[in-house]
Amino acid sequence: MLQDIVITAIINGSIYALLAIGFSLIFGVARIINIAHTAFFMVGAYGIYLGTQILSLSPVVSMVGSTVLVTLLGLFLYKFLIDPIREHEAAVLIATIALAISIQEAMVLLFFANYVSVPSLLEGFFTLFGAKVFYQQLITFLTVLGVLIALWLLLMKTKLGIAIRCTAQDKEVANLMGINESRVAMYTTLISVGLASFAGAVVVPLTTLHPYMWMHPLVMMMAVVVLGGLGSLKGSFIGAYIMGFAESLVVFLIPKGSFLKSAVALSIMIVILLIRPEGLFGVKFEEER
Amino acid sequence: MLLLRYYLRKFYVILKNEIIVLPSRIAVCLFFLFVLTLPLFVKDLYILRIFVLTSIFAIFAASWDLLSGFTGQINFGHALFFGVGAYTVALLNLKLHLPPILGIPLAAIASVLVGLIVGIPCLRLKGTYLALATLSFPIILMGIVFLVPSYTGGELGLSGLRPLTPSRLLDYYVVSVLMLSFVSLMWKLTDSNLGIILHAIREDEVAARAAGINTTKYKLLVFSISGFFAGLSGGLYAHFMRIAGPSTLEVSLSFSVVIWSVFGGMVTIYGPVGAVFILFPLLELFRFWPEYRTLIFAVVVLLTLLYMPEGLLPWLRDKIETECPRCKKRNFYKRNTCRVCMAPLELQQ
Fold it and tell me: Of the candidates A35, A277, A289, which has its C-beta nearest B129's C-beta?
């Protein structure tokens, strides 16, 4: 029981962390609340389904292919739909909502509103402290960890990472320092959508696919981002695991808990926000005026 | 008799000098006429039903604009008020057998209370934090709804409410007259001192506080006013559809109201109402291709935004009207001089 809770929590938490960090990045740099973020997550997952089940490619090829293609799609959509209206915040907001809905409808048209699933990369399981751990869960966890470390290196050590963090802190000053702000925003979109579709790709064997699967992760991801503090990567990481644990505790311990899982997790978020309005690790920015 | 002639004359003067001169005012009058005389031309009950729903959602969208447009407190969970209104009405009607005329105002008051309960903690949050935190309230309430299915009907919802009125035509008139009066009331509110204060809070809260405005009080006030109207629309919806289900609390409803308001133009009140009256029947028009319906809807919204990011109705208004550079009165775009102060309108040339 306890082991099951921990394993579910770690897997869910890792996925939320991947999603939340991508969301947080693009919010920090471009000030876009990207509602369509988890829609790309869904497209990434469907890409795997298309590759392995319909085109019968090998799982690894379809995983890489779908991540790359979805990233390009995201970049294309950003360039043609979001970039021209970036000055109007409200317009960007509903543009991303409309984008998410149209992606969902496109998936309904292409793959029908059925539940489908994808076989694991590696069948079988081993026992750890008396709990079944599927190899797929281990793979998911390890790849997520690897990607997060790579992302941390990218943000902390490379020139691009410094430019991204700089733009997130202050756009005008970054521009004065010779950073091409719109190009940084484009790279950030690339990374962010890439992370979302990668998250979709690693989670796909563990869950069932349907065109409405983006709603629940969206809400949880936003809760994680707010909980950890907007723009704080460490906060998103820790917040994601808090949310993951809260969810799996509720599901396993309370009868009829699956109805309540998001309610309890979101209540935790609200309680924390009441104590610390800027989130766990958020920095209190001076208001932009 | 003399008095009557005086009033008729006054009416004529106002009509000639204040309304006919501006196309936007003509449009508003035509809209009122259209809503009030629609049943004379259309006898189809299905179309009347669509317009009843349109009116209900118009109240809902206008109330979102009042809260989020005017004070800048972006609310992603507006469905909370709608759902609370709908469920309160359903419980009052089914358990206490209250008629709609009592139940709907009570539901609105319940929504105000919920607005206060939500509003007080949320006032500590700002901007994006607020937007994302409010998203969670309807989901929490939905969890509670699923937890006690004996009271709330669980996934199926509460059905078998008394209909709003005995006939569809009466339904239409009740809802549309209510819609017109509530929306006018909200529009009037935003033109009053309260509206100016709300504008100030959106533009610069610190400066508003420095000017001696108790911003917390006003934000709570507008939370309750908005909750009141949204609750009313929820109650009307529940009685009209005769069911209050979890769909009134869904994230997609909260998103729809944001789409309507921003598409029509925020901070205008007339924008969201106009957008609902354009988009909702349009969505019904697409019912001939049911699979593509939502997709076409989303694409239409996306493409419109690409060309008019300020929203559809303010864009149209700017096309047909210009503002006098001297006295700031609005004029028809073909005029060369201002209709009030006679200043030439195109100074820049």
Answer: A277
Residue A154, domain member (yes or no): yes
- Per the structure, the complete domain to which residue A51 belongs is given by 2-213
Give ∠ CA A184-A187-A192 in degrees, rounded to 5.
120
- Chain-chain contact of A105 with B295 (C-beta, under 8 angstroms): yes
Residues 26-65 of A with CB under 8 A from B: 27, 33, 35
According to DSSP, residue A205 is labeled G
- Which residues in chain A are contacts of B297 at CB distance < 8 A? 101
Provide the token pair at A204: 């796909």
Beta-strand runs (E) in A41-196: 125-128, 131-134
Tell me whether residue A228 is in a domain.
Answer: no
Q: What's the topology of domain B19-307?
A: ABC transporter involved in vitamin B12 uptake, BtuC (1.10.3470)
pLDDT tens for A107-122 read 888 888 788 888 777 7
Rounded distance between C-alpha atoms, residue A152 and residue A287, angstroms: 28
| C-alpha distance across the termini of chain A, in Å | 52
Instruction: List chain B residues with CB under 8 Å of A97.
Output: 255, 258-259
The pLDDT confidence band at residue B348, using thresholds 50, 70 and 90, is low
Residue pLDDT, tens place only, B127-159: 777 888 888 899 999 988 988 888 888 888 888
Rounded to two decimals, the pTM is 0.89
Indicate whether A219 belongs to any domain: no
Would the ipTM clear 0.85, i.e. be above it?
A: no
